[in-house]
Amino acid sequence: FFVADLPGCEAFDPAGAPLGTVVEILPLPAHDVIVLRAGERERMVPLVPAFVVSVDVATRRVVLDPPEEDE
Fold first, then answer.
1. How far apart are alpha carbons 36 and 55 in whole angstroms?
2. CB 38, CB 51: distance < 8 Å
3. CA dist 67 → 1, 5, 15, 21, 46 (Å)
4. 3 state DSSP class of 5
5. What count of Cα atoms within 13 Å lies in the side-chain half-sphere of residue 52?
C-alpha cells in the first residue's frame, strides 16, 4: 500500500471494534504517524509494523493494534 492511500480508510482493532477514520498521515522524522478521528476525538498511532496489522485499500479498511492510551 501507499501511505497516500490511507486517509479516508476506516480503522479497526484486531477484534473488529472501530477506532475511527484515518484523517491524516503526519510525516515525522522517526516514522509516519496515522491520525484517527472518531467523532470529536483524535488519536495518533505510529505507522510501524508493530501496530499495523493489515491494510486493505480496496475495501478502505485498516486494522491497527495500537498501544494502550493514557486516559
1. 15
2. no
3. 22, 23, 15, 17, 9
4. helix
5. 19
Q: Are 67 and 54 in contact (CB under 8 A)?
A: no
3-state secondary structure labels for all residues of 13-68: CCCCCEEEEEEEEEECCCCEEEEEEECCEEEEEECCCCCEEEEECCCCEEEECCCC
CB atoms under 10 Å from CB of 61, counted, come to 13
**pLDDT tens per residue across span 8-34:** 999 999 999 999 999 999 999 999 999
Cβ atoms of 65 and 51 within 8 Å: the answer is: yes
For the whole prediction, is pTM greater than 0.70? yes
